[in-house]
Design brief:
Number of helices: 2
Order of helices and strands: HH
Mean pLDDT: 77
Largest sheet: none
Length: 83
């Protein structure tokens, strides 16, 4: 039984090393180049998509302004809060 496992291990090692040598030499490319079933489409041309809208709780400027208003309510740059 031990001899059988040793043969399997040597065969696996030899196979692995053979494949590594082939890959390093560049003999094994991406595989056979076969024509694709459908042609690729060119990139769409037109207006760029709008930038993502950031939620107020993710907007750093908004949060910084809230902290400033909370910490300095007497600041003359702060407009009076309307509720």
């Amino acid at each position: 039984m031990l001899k059988f496992l040793l043969v399997i291990a040597v065969f696996a090692l030899a196979t692995y090393l053979t494949i590594r040598v082939i890959q390093r030499r560049g003999l094994l490319e991406q595989g056979p180049q076969r024509p694709s079933a459908r042609p690729s489409r060119p990139a769409p041309k037109g207006p760029k998509p709008k930038p993502c809208i950031v939620a107020p709780d993710d907007d750093e400027d908004f949060l910084r302004d809230l902290d400033r208003k909370r910490l300095h309510p007497d600041d003359p740059d702060n407009p009076p809060a309307t509720t």
